[in-house]
Amino acid sequence: MIQAIQVLRGQVSAEDRRVIDDSLGAISAGRDVDPGTLRLALSAIGGVATVVGEVGAPVVAAIQRVLALIAG
Questions:
Q1: Theoretical Cys-Cys bridge with 23: which of 17, 41, 67, 68, CB 3.0 to 4.6 Å?
Q2: Are 1 and 62 in contact (CB under 8 A)?
């Protein structure tokens, strides 16, 4: 998922890159991150990915899988 987010990052505006960068820290923390913080970070990146359309589709799909795992 991180690789797909990095690809997406290279194709969005500077403002959207800031959203992605701010959120990647939480996502990269792995098991050390609070689940609520992780959900917010995934949602922020998912929002960017949704807005850009087809380019963001792999990121949206990956985020949906992770959120489903978190929800249990």
A1: 41
A2: yes
Q: Give the predicted TM-score (pTM) of the model.
A: 0.88
Going from N- to C-terminal start, the domains of the chain cover 2-71
Q: What is the Cα–Cα distance from 7 to 12, expressed in whole angstroms?
A: 9
Q: Which amino acid is at 17?
A: R
Q: Compute CA distances 39 → 10, 11, 13, 54, whole Å.
A: 23, 23, 23, 22
In the chain, the amino acid numbered 50 is T
Q: Dihedral sign for Cα 8, 51, 1, 19, please.
A: positive
Beta strands in the chain (DSSP E): none
